[in-house]
Structures are given as C-alpha cells and as structure tokens.
Amino acid sequence: MFGEIRNEHGEQLDWTYHKGKDNRIVVIGHGVTGNKDRPALVALAEGLADAGISALRFSFSGNGESEGAFLDSTITKEVADLGSVLDNLNDYKVCYVGHSMGGAVGVLRAAIDERIEVLVSLAGMVHTKAFADREFGDVTPDEGFMWDEPDCPLSQAYMDDMIVIDSVAKQASKFGGPWLLVHGSEDDIVPIQDSIDILNYANEPTELLDLPGADHVFSGDSTAVMVEKVVAWIEQKL
Fold first, then answer.
1. CA torsion through residues 96, 100, 103, 105, sign
2. Plot region of 52 (φ>0 → left; ψ -120 to 50 → alpha; else → beta)
3. Beta carbons within 8 Å of 148's beta carbon, 6+ residues apart
4. H helices within 2-127, ranges in order?
5. Per-domain residue ranges for the chain?
6. Per-residue pLDDT tens for 10-41?
7. Prior bond to 150 cis, omega within 30?
8. CA–CA separation, 183 vs 228, rounded Å?
9. Dist CA 110 CA 95 (whole Å)
10. d(CA 96, CA 100)
C-alpha cells in the first residue's frame, strides 16, 4: 500500500496495513521491548478495520523486523520514526494510538505535529525518568538487559534520554485534539497514576478510561473490552 517506509537514518520500518473504507487511518505504535505484532495491538487493528477504519501498525527502528539496532532505540528516535510514518499518510485523517512507551512517543509527536488529529494512549508512560529508575535502576547500562531479555540490551543512550525527558506531562497542553487515556487498574509496569497525572495537564476534550482488572498489555478478557471501547471512541472522534 505505502511501499517502503524509512526513517531519517534510512532504516526501513516494518509495517502491516489493515484496509478500511474511507480516508481515516489509525497508526499504532508499541512499547519498549515490543513490536507491531503484540496481540492486543493486532486485535485493535482488526477491530478498527472491521469498523471501516484503516489501521497501520508498525515496529519502531531496532524493534521487531524493522531495521536498526535496539541499542539505538530511544523515545527521541521513536518520535522521529513516527514522523517518518506520518510523511506517508498525507491523504488521511490520522489518529495515533501508542501503547506504554509508545504512548509517551505519541504525546511528544502530537505536541509538535498537527497531522495527528486524534490521540489514544494505552497504558501510556508519562514519567519516563521514574519508569527507568524503577524498572532498570539496578541494571548497568551497556552491560545488562531490560528485564533479563538478551535481545533487549539496556543502553546508556536509552537511560540518558529517559532522564532528559523526565516526564511528558509538561508537553500535554500542546495537543488540542480529542485524547483518550486508557489504563488498566492492575497495570504493574506503568501505574495508572501516570494517566491521572497527565490528565491534569491535558486540554479539553481529554478522557480517562479506567479498565478494572486489566493489566499492562490488556491480556485475556481485557483485550476485547479495550478494543470495543477504543474503536467506538475513535469512530466518534476521527
């Protein structure tokens, strides 16, 4: 559909397109150590297509089947990757859905890019420094791994970027479109307090959807509930 999508470093990004019926499209970005094929993201894309809304899920550079090194993956680089994806969607009305760290990417991109008209944060990371300290504070950068996953080495560049950004909450007021914050009550990776905190900085209309019993990746029965509610909301807003 879109041919090759490359970022500003010339790295090809892996993507999957789900065809809808009109010029609306939802771009779906994943979280740290993830990729475009996470089950909840696939289910969301399929639900959107069933509702007649196109979806494009992609893997950030260095993740999944996209080119690039995982060691170079940072929020700042992924914000630029998202911009490269948007460069290929000039004929579409765009909503961006970001999961976890992909949610932080969405806030930062939407703050500077009017092409994103509607925004959804799924278990969105807000306080980046606090997250890095909490999850990886006992790991030595450039030696250890994220959550002991050998394919996901922890880089100093990643930690430095998380510290410099600190929190994306301060950028929330720069996005003026419809925004849905979706968070599970049982999320033990990114606490729901992150979404509560950013809600205080966001413009109207911004909504917080608390999903009782849902974990960080919206697994099990939570997948269908998340998909139903997010698709219905996007149908109204995009």
1. negative
2. left
3. none
4. 39-50, 75-86, 101-110
5. 15-126+166-237
6. 999 999 999 999 999 999 999 999 999 999 99
7. no
8. 14
9. 10
10. 13
- What's the whole-number mean pLDDT along residues 134-154? 97
CATH topology of domain 15-126+166-237: Rossmann fold (3.40.50)
Tell me phi and psi for residue 63, to 5 degrees. Answer: -125, 150
Dist. CA 17–CA 33, nearest whole Å: 21
Residues in contact with 1: Cβ distance below 8 Å, sequence separation at least 6, in sequence order: 17, 19
Question: What tokens appear for 140 in the block?
Answer: 């030595």
CA distance 183 to 194: 9
Q: Do 123 and 165 meet the contact criterion of CB atoms below 8 Å apart?
A: no
Is the pLDDT at 4 greater than 90, yes or no? Answer: yes
CA 206: distance to chain centroid?
A: 17
Side-chain-side CA neighbours of residue 139 (13 Å)? 22
Burial of 73 per CB tally in 10 Å (0-12, 13-18, 19+): buried
State pTM to two decimals: 0.98
Cα angle vertex 157, ends 161, 63, to 5°? 95
Question: What 3-state DSSP class applies to 169?
Answer: helix
